[in-house]
């Protein structure tokens, strides 16, 4: 008689201890890489942690490799739009530097802003821009780059400046109706968009006010000394000597902001802003083409980054020492910045991180960790705290802010309704952590992107991204005190449950 094929091995459900092994492995590898190897490149650590998670899923949990591979591919696929935007932002930065847009913004900023109020001003400018366009990435990659140059020239710590830029950029990312996360969070929780936005005012207002107060204190340490004023003058004159600066160069940033505000898709808006700057630069900056000529120099910069070539004679009124110092500062500000090539390391980091997150989610280990957290919930305060900590944990493990909103939103929705809490409480908690803490994780898509465009390591700016820390803290405090926590009746809870079903 023919023998029947062997039965497939029964799959096993992951335990909490087993689910935490890849997390412990990742943390250990990251510590080894940073502390022992003194490296800021975490790609290999993430690859090894992904291999460990996949080994556990296939060998220990007896899951088919095809499913695990599909999980990685799906996770990476969710970030393809972000990767495309990142590459285009690299091109945009190079085009805006070579065409003179960024130098113009730096000069205007240096002439208008004094050191004591610069951090407050930088945060508020990014708040306004991000609220108008709904994108932290667009804000940081455009005005954020110019603000970094201004801050560096004023002698302010780059981590502080980047922290102020990130805080302001994520204010709009979580509050603007144009933001994707602002629309995603209420969709996951079952709330309406404008109920969600109004409810977030309770947490973001004190977080922003405290952040501005802290920036004012930090900025007060940087006075406008004669030495700093002389340095600013030298940098301004050096930029004016090497670029033709005209208000017409404001057209590309105004074009991008105008298109995004009018709900034009971000990717084509950034492409138009890039090549609009190229076209304008060919007219305004004909002498800044370096060794190549015309359009070819821009093509080279769009891929490889802007290559600074001092072509102007000595600046009148500046001695040789001041001129050399100004040239060094301008070189640090502009040379090698932007370009698609400069973003490839960040893209590799994102792909490796999302692969790890994909394995963790598809194998069920991520869900196991989250469900274990839910078992600790005893009241409204602990429920909101658990939601916020889970969002942050998924930002760390899955490396993507969308997963940090979607997964906890699905997990905790029923728990909020069971406790007769309005869905807008859940949607606010998702944004107060899932959105803003993504920029605090170096290997998260958002943390990696901020580092790439601002040129500052995540660990350097994170301590100064006050709003990103304060929003989840304020939200947890409200959960335990009951401030602004909206309850619903049994009938309303049943109605929301029917909609969810």
The major sheet is characterized as: none
- The mean pLDDT is 83
Strand content: under 5%
Determine the structural class based on helices, strands and strand pairing.
mainly alpha
Q: From the alpha-carbon coordinates, what is the Rg to the nearest angstrom? A: 25 Å
The helix-strand sequence is: HHHHHHHHHHHHHHHHHHHHHHHHH
What's the number of helices? 25
Q: How many domain regions? A: 2
* Proportion in helices: over 70%
Instruction: List unreliable stretches of 5+ residues.
Output: none
Measure the end-to-end span.
50 Å
Q: How many strands in all?
A: 0
Q: How does the overall form come out from the CA principal axes?
A: globular
Note down, in words, how this protein is organized.
The longest helix has 27 residues, at 193-219. The chain contains 25 helices and no strands. The chain is mainly alpha-helical. α5 packs across α8 (143-153) and α11 packs parallel to α21.
Structure summary:
With 501 residues, this protein is an all-alpha fold. The chain folds into two domains: 16-27 and 40-79 and 343-500, no CATH class; 85-341, no CATH class. It has 25 helices and no strands.
Record the SSE blueprint.
Elements: H1 16-36, H2 43-60, H3 65-78, H4 80-99, H5 101-112, H6 115-133, H7 136-141, H8 143-153, H9 158-175, H10 180-189, H11 193-219, H12 226-242, H13 251-261, H14 266-284, H15 295-304, H16 320-334, H17 344-362, H18 365-374, H19 380-397, H20 401-418, H21 423-435, H22 445-454, H23 458-461, H24 466-481, H25 490-500
Helix pairs in contact: 1-2, 1-18, 2-17, 3-17, 4-14, 4-15, 5-8, 5-12, 6-8, 6-9, 6-11, 8-9, 8-16, 9-11, 10-20, 10-21, 11-21, 11-24, 12-16, 13-14, 17-22, 18-19, 18-20, 19-20, 19-21, 19-24, 20-21, 21-24
């Amino acid at each position: 008689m023919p023998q029947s094929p062997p039965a497939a091995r029964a799959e096993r459900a992951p335990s909490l201890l087993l689910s935490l092994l890849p997390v412990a492995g990742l943390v250990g590898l990251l510590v080894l890489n940073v502390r022992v190897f003194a490296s800021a490149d975490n790609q290999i650590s993430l690859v090894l942690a992904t291999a460990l998670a996949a080994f556990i899923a296939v060998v220990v949990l007896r899951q088919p490799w095809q499913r695990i591979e599909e999980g990685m591919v799906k996770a990476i696929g969710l970030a393809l739009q972000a990767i495309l935007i990142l590459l285009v932002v690299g091109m945009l930065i190079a085009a805006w530097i070579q065409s003179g847009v960024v130098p113009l913004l730096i000069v205007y900023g240096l002439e208008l802003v004094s050191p004591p109020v610069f951090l407050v001003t930088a945060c508020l400018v990014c708040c306004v821009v991000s609220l108008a366009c709904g994108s932290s990435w667009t804000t940081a990659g455009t005005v954020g780059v110019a603000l970094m140059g201004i801050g560096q020239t004023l002698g302010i710590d780059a981590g502080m400046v980047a922290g102020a830029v990130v805080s302001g950029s994520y204010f709009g990312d979580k509050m603007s109706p144009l933001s994707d996360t602002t629309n995603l969070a209420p969709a996951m929780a079952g709330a309406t968009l404008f109920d969600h936005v109004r409810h977030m005012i309770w947490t973001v207002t004190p977080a922003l006010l405290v952040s501005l107060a802290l920036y004012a204190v930090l900025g007060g340490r940087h006075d406008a000394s004669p030495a700093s004023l002389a340095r600013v003058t030298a940098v301004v004159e050096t930029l004016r000597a090497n670029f033709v600066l005209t208000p017409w160069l404001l057209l590309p940033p105004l074009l991008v902001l105008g298109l995004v505000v009018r709900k034009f898709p971000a990717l084509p808006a950034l492409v138009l802003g890039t090549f609009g700057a190229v076209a304008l630069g060919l007219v305004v900056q004909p002498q800044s083409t370096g060794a190549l000529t015309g359009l070819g120099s821009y093509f080279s910069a769009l891929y490889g980054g802007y290559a600074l070539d001092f072509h102007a004679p000595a600046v009148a009124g500046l001695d040789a020492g001041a001129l050399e110092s100004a040239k060094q500062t301008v070189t640090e500000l502009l040379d090698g910045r932007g370009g698609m090539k400069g973003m490839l390391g960040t893209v590799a980091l994102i792909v490796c991180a999302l692969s790890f997150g994909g394995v963790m989610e598809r194998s069920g280990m991520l869900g196991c960790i989250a469900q274990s957290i839910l078992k600790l919930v005893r009241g409204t305060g602990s429920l909101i705290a658990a939601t916020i900590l889970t969002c942050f944990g998924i930002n760390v493990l899955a490396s993507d802010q969308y997963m940090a909103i979607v997964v906890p939103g699905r997990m905790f929705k029923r728990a909020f309704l069971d406790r007769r809490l309005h869905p807008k409480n859940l949607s606010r908690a998702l944004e107060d952590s899932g959105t803003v803490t993504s920029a605090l994780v170096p290997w998260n898509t958002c943390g990696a992107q901020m580092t790439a465009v601002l040129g500052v390591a995540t660990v350097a700016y994170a301590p100064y991204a006050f709003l990103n820390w304060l929003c989840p803290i304020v939200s947890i405090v409200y959960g335990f005190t009951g401030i602004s926590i909206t309850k619903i009746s049994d009938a309303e809870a049943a109605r929301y449950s029917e909609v969810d079903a």
